[in-house]
Specification:
Length: 147
Amino acid sequence: MPEPHGPERDDATPSAWRISLPHTQAAVPIARALVRTALADIDAPADSDTAELLTAELVTNAVEHTLGDTPIELVVELLSSGCQVEVHDDSPLPPGDLSAPGAIHHPDPWQEHGRGLLLIRTLSSACGHRPTAHGKAVWFTLPSRRG
């Protein structure tokens, strides 16, 4: 299993896990398992079931909407307020209406595709994308369950 990335862990330093995934649908269950394991290992205060679901959506989108076989990178980071998950791919194209303010796209309930970004927008506390040196990172954050 991958090791946490970054400096020694303590209460003041966020923990992060980073792994390269194959550019195939096989990446989805691997990503779900990694998120579940990482959040348990770092005692993340965020809901791991929701993190797994949203991670699966991001990885699926990266596989389906990018060409080639360049690996996808998954980053899971514990934040003081919850957790953040990023999926990096080699496409510079934005991920549809993920972070569009007031996006009003309602997917057809009879269609197999089109609900992933809606789930991410609805279930995360924040989400978006940013350019990287080799494409983009698409991310979401989940708040702490502690209250």
